[in-house]
Amino acid sequence: MHNENCKANHFGNSGSMEASGAIKIFQFSESLHGLQYTKFLGDGDARAYKAVNEMQPYGDTSIEKLECVGYVKKRMGTRLRNLKLKMKRKKLSDKKKTLDDHGRLADAEIDKLQRYYGLAIRNNTDSINSINSIKRAIWATYFHKAFIDAYLQHDLCPTNEDTWCEYDRAITTSEVYKHKNTLPSEASITSNMCVQEIINN
Q1: Is the pLDDT reported for residue 183 higher than 80?
Q2: b/e map of 148-176 (b: 16 or more CB within 10 Å)?
Q3: What positions does the domain Mutator-like transposase occupy (predicted)?
Q4: pLDDT of residue 182
Q5: Could you give the 3-state DSSP secondary structure of residue 39?
């Protein structure tokens, strides 16, 4: 039971708490601060944005929904981990190992792919053709990690002087580069499906 000095300001289930709070923030922004919030930065849960948008706090003034890059890249890692869990006991096309076996899609490898995915978005949001640039950068990291010396796929990697691609850096300095820590083709093909799903959504 609540005591007499209870300062609870929300009554309802926890799922509606964020939407309720967002509505109040937008509802009183003009009277309290003389401001109109025209952008809404969310964490992937569309309920709060939908509630604010339906309320139309500023009449015909539209509110743009922004996506948090941190949440988007986390979603990449989550889907890859869910994929690995789903295929835990299923051997891949080489009939030797499963997706979560040593040298396949390890958690450390997922962490790298997740980090590269976030950087691909952050580093290309200001370009003129940002959507295509982001997609190209995402696929560049995938191909960069997925293949070996016998089958190179660095066509999408950036070729500028400070490129993150060790292979392209080695070419500019005439050094011999040997690929390491790459995903076996069986694991790469499986991860490819997950990458395509995320990019297209």
Answers
A1: no
A2: eeeeebbebbeeeeebebbbbbeeeeeee
A3: 3-165
A4: 54
A5: strand
